[in-house]
Amino acid sequence: MFRLFRIFAAMTLAPALMTGRATACTGITLTAADGSHVLARTIEWAGSDLNSRYVVVPRGHRQQSLVPGGTDGMAFTARYGYVGLAVEQEAFVAEGLNEAGLSAGLFYFPGYGQYEEYDAAARDKSIADLQLVAWLLGQCATVDEVKAAVAGVHVVAIDPRASTVHWRFCDRTGRQVVLEITGGRPRFFENELGVLTNAPGFEWQLTNLNNYVNLRAGSAAPQQLGARPLAAFGAGSGMLGLPGDVTPPSRFVRAAFVQATAPRQATGEDAVLQAFQLLNAFDIPTGIEFAPGEEVPAIPSGTQWTSAADLTHLRLYYRTMYNSAIRCIDLGSIRFDRVAYRALPLDDVKRQPVTVVDVR
């Protein structure tokens, strides 16, 4: 309980997580030739270091949700063990994978989501939006179980200043859904495309892809414009018009086309490595969100970490703005019936290591 009060005392940090510049996320999905399903994503925040950590949660671990004004929201106990990547507080799991192969993650969703109003009389069935991922990873094995679980609770904001989020869930079969809460009601969308960013809503993002019906892999064919011959300057001209800015609609379009044109890899591990390469194109450099004269935080990147989850082989991978080496947590090696709960920083040293090549 002391941990919960400590977290609640720090809740003034929650609005910082969900408002401001470069609070962005880009999610993609890859399926390898061997049937492995891989979900990968970035998480951005340009305002400060999110002090991210990984949490290992055993079966039987008990937690209680924060609610407006207190720490006495819904209590829940994990049926499944899981590993999560948390931001600012260990309770705020933004991305994770459980031992049943369920992947869950939250994505910033400003201005378009609307949760129901918090009712203190229903606090024992109320869960904070920033803790929904942790609860569902501990409770569910499939997308259908996620949908049934969400129908039985009230998802609320713990601070009225904070923005809303939406969520992505995928089970071991590869079925993926997006959850958005609008008008106080949860809505699930089947996500066969496998891409997610931020606002506007998911259905709008899919419709917007029709604006780019002309894009295709490869190069544009030469043509004649009156007496003037026209030819591409170089490779990739079939993608002329692909948006390159960092707004959520542009990242959604770019992610959809980059994902669709990526060659299928042989194995899950190959697909994981490919996912990290593809998401290089979505890193947000520090500084571009700040006007001239504004103070830029002393962090090396607006993209604080990138993760990939192999749902088939139960492995969670990540790299960070401080260390671009890819690290892996193998859930198959964890005894979730006996492992102790732990929360540890993603980086022991917050500086990119450099290896000197000895050419003597």
Structure explained in plain terms:
The longest helix is centred in the C-terminal third of the chain and has 14 residues, at 248-261. The protein has a single domain (2-199, 264-345), classed as Penicillin V Acylase, Chain A, CATH 3.60.60. It has 360 residues and is of the alpha+beta class. The protein starts with a helix and ends in a 15-residue tail after the last strand. It is built from seven helices and 19 strands. The strands form five sheets. It has an eight-stranded antiparallel beta sheet with strand order 13-12-11-8-7-6-3-19, with helices on one face. Strands 1-2-16-17-18 form a five-stranded antiparallel beta sheet. A two-stranded antiparallel ribbon has the order 4-5. It has helices at residues 2-9, 14-18, 132-139, 143-151, 202-208, 248-261, 268-279, and strands at residues 27-31, 37-44, 53-57, 62-64, 75-77, 82-86, 93-98, 103-108, 126-128, 154-156, 165-170, 176-182, 185-190, 223-225, 228-230, 303-310, 315-320, 327-330, 342-345.
Topology, please?
Blueprint: H1 2-9, H2 14-18, E1 27-31, E2 37-44, E3 53-57, E4 62-64, E5 75-77, E6 82-86, E7 93-98, E8 103-108, E9 126-128, H3 132-139, H4 143-151, E10 154-156, E11 165-170, E12 176-182, E13 185-190, H5 202-208, E14 223-225, E15 228-230, H6 248-261, H7 268-279, E16 303-310, E17 315-320, E18 327-330, E19 342-345
Parallel strand pairs: 9-10
Antiparallel strand pairs: 1-2, 2-16, 3-6, 3-19, 4-5, 6-7, 7-8, 8-11, 11-12, 12-13, 14-15, 16-17, 17-18
